[in-house]
Amino acid sequence: MAKYRKLGRVGSHRQAMLRNLATSLLKHNRIQTTETRAKEARKLVDKAITLAKRGDLHARRQVMNIITEEAVVKALFDEIAPKYADRNGGYTRILKMGPRIGDAVEVVIFELV
């Protein structure tokens, strides 16, 4: 069994999509997407926030491999990570909204706690 969801895409497309989802979440604090995409993007967001809590240069460079915009990385290190300094994981929340009209896939609100 696979360790991750393939989401019907080749590896490079999947990785770019998940990086964009993580960047959007950290930029807007809340996004609407499908349940499976949110569950996969949650791994990247949690890893990025955990690295940002360390706050050193190496962690910043590692986060730049996940997050696509420098302004979002700066905000992550300066504003978002200090909020979660006393929390050991679980930085995101997935709220189910119900099936989408066109294809009946489960739509969720993916947000920071």
Question: What would you note in describing this structure?
Answer:
The chain is an alpha+beta fold. It has a single domain (11-112), classed as Ribosomal protein L17 (50s Ribosomal Protein L17, Chain: A, Alpha-Beta Complex), CATH 3.90.1030. It is 53% helix and 18% strand. It has helices spanning 11-28, 35-54, 57-64, 70-83, and strands at residues 30-34, 92-99, 106-112. The protein has a three-stranded antiparallel beta sheet with strand order 1-3-2, covered by helices on one side. A hairpin with a 6-residue loop joins strand 2 and strand 3. It starts with 10 loop residues before the first helix and ends with a strand. The mean pLDDT is 96.
CATH topology: 50s Ribosomal Protein L17, Chain: A
The chain-level mean pLDDT equals 96
Strand order of the largest sheet: 1-3-2
Order of helices and strands: HEHHHEE
* Cα distance spanning the termini: 30 Å
Helix content: 40-55%
Q: Can you say what the CATH homologous superfamily is?
A: Ribosomal protein L17
| Domain tally | 1
Biggest sheet statistics: 3 strands, antiparallel
Q: How large is the radius of gyration?
A: 14 Å
Shape: globular
Provide the structure class: alpha+beta
How many separate helices?
A: 4
The total strand number stands at 3
CATH top level class name: Alpha Beta
CATH architecture: Alpha-Beta Complex
Low-confidence stretches: none
Strand content: 15-25%
